[in-house]
User: Which sequence fits this backbone?
């Protein structure tokens, strides 16, 4: 049986604003992704495929037009002649667009590379001053290689073209995208991407970079940073991850922030900058007395070190099987169910978290925010987490002290996954050369004392000197979905599964959210788990028939102040 059923430039932008964008809309909070993107597929002899995870969203705008790109699970499978399951389609990137400031939305899947039927995720969206939208991500090319990709669309059509391949060196991961003015040709916008590339034989990774001077038609790529091993395990090592890019709209200066891993508790934030459209980059300095280098800022990632299943390995020469745990940092709810391969805790309701440094820049002011554990020990189960913020008024020469912008963390709660935007678009009839650096907006998740999550907004009117009391954006609490469900077998007693078995254990709300400034209001999107779905009745499914949370992308447009 094979049954599929549907489960339910700033100046240029301002000069082209239509009458529909003239007045900011009323307050909105609503689901962005169309239910038609979801599906449940049931094939005889296996558990159902509940393809309903939508999260990890970003947003960009042009006038009244908004576009959000997010992770989804647009998969269809079949059995081949030998009865082996295979994908006929595997589209993990979706987008929704609104032409009325977020009142209504339509959804599609991002097209894959020519000759491929697979997109993999880590989607990002940005727009230029002429109304062209760019969506980056990962996909498979026609040869099955993991590839950094880019799709483009224009605001008056919003039908993204098939993806263009940017780079497949090594194993690329987590691309980030930014669009901004050329420092040499002021009326041209350049497209920039940065990502990491892994050498899986050693575990090392390097920071890669691409730029396009022709609207995404062609790209130049190169490696920016390739660190080596340090004999001191507490120092920065040969692996980098979680890059983000920002472009200062007043100058075209590029900033790339990323994390360099250590082998003990500390990891390290680094920032590179370029004043020549990415031809050359220079490291910024923090001058922390407790850091092993002036160019790194010591941090501790948030979350509990959690086992999310384990993989069996049978030694070639025989002997007892070995089990390699899939251990990641999570925020979670409910008890530790125990019985892990590693001795680390296991939680059925969990979402993966990390420390991705988020940046925004305008008029020479650089803003930086991240989520930092309140413990000096990596993965400490009783730790809290704060959203820390700091800024530089001179492009990274000197920095303010880092400070929390959230309500104080405690052992019962953590704040995590921040994103940042600066300024505000003025009303129609006036415009400025760049967004004001004095208006700072940061959104993030907080886990409340009862285990539910909220989405919060912290704002500053004085360039980050002080922050007002955070505002809650979600009308209903988020309840973590079952993403780490025990599925033991005789071959692997430590196996676990997500209710959405293609999403991966402990994968839920995603590893970032989106924030964009509009006329009088912000545009915020996030992965949200307030909604529910009933798991199909199937004897092979460990939670058959249960009603539980599922992930959707939600949008809100809070006033700027």
Assistant:
């Amino acid at each position: 049986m094979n049954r599929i059923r549907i489960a339910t430039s700033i100046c240029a932008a301002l000069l082209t604003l239509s009458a529909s964008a003239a007045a900011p809309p009323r307050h909105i909070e609503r689901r962005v992704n169309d239910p038609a993107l979801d599906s449940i597929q049931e094939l005889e002899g296996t558990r159902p495929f509940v393809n309903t995870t939508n999260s990890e969203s970003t947003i960009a705008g042009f006038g009244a037009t908004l576009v959000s790109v997010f992770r989804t699970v647009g998969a269809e499978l079949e059995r081949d002649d030998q009865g082996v399951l295979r994908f006929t389609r595997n589209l993990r990137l979706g987008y929704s667009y609104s032409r009325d400031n977020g009142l209504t939305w339509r959804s599609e899947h991002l097209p894959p590379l020519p000759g491929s039927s697979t997109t993999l995720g880590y989607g990002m969206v940005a727009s230029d001053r002429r109304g062209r939208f760019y969506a980056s991500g990962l996909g498979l090319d026609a040869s099955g290689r993991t590839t950094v990709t880019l799709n483009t669309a224009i605001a008056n059509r919003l039908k993204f073209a098939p993806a263009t391949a940017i780079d497949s060196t090594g194993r690329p991961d987590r691309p980030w995208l930014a669009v901004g003015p050329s420092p040499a040709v002021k009326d041209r916008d350049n497209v920039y991407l940065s990502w990491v590339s892994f050498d899986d034989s050693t575990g090392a990774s390097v920071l890669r970079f691409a730029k396009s001077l022709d609207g995404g038609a062609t790209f130049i790529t190169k490696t920016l940073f390739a660190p080596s091993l340090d004999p001191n395990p507490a120092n920065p090592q040969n692996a980098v991850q979680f890059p983000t890019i920002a472009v200062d709209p007043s100058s075209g200066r590029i900033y790339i922030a990323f994390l360099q891993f250590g082998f003990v508790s500390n990891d390290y934030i680094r920032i590179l900058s370029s004043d020549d459209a990415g031809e050359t980059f220079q490291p910024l300095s923090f001058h922390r007395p407790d850091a092993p280098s002036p160019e790194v800022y010591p941090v501790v990632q948030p979350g509990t070190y959690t086992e999310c299943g384990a993989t069996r390995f049978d030694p070639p020469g025989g002997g007892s099987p070995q089990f390699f745990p899939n251990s990641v940092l999570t925020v979670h709810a409910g008890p530790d169910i125990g019985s892990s391969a590693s001795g680390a805790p296991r939680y059925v309701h969990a979402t993966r978290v990390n420390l991705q440094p988020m940046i925004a820049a305008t008029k020479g002011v650089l803003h930086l925010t991240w989520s930092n554990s309140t413990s000096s020990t990596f993965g400490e189960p009783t730790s809290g987490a704060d959203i820390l913020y700091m800024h530089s008024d001179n492009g990274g020469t000197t920095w303010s002290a880092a400070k929390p912008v959230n309500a104080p963390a405690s052992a019962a709660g953590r704040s995590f996954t921040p994103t940042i935007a600066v300024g505000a678009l003025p009303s129609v009839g006036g415009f400025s050369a760049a967004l004001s650096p004095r208006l700072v907006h940061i959104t993030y998740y907080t886990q409340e004392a009862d285990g539910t999550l909220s989405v919060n907004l912290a704002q500053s009117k004085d360039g980050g000197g002080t922050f007002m009391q955070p505002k809650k954006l979600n009308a209903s609490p988020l309840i973590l979905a079952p993403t780490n469900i025990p599925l033991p077998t005789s071959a692997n007693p430590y196996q676990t599964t997500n209710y959405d078995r293609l999403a991966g254990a402990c994968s839920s709300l995603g590893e970032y959210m989106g924030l964009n400034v509009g006329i009088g209001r912000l545009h915020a999107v996030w992965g949200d788990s307030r909604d529910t779905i009933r798991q199909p009745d199937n004897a092979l499914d460990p939670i058959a028939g249960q009603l539980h949370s599922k992930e959707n992308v939600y949008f809100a447009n809070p006033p700027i102040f």
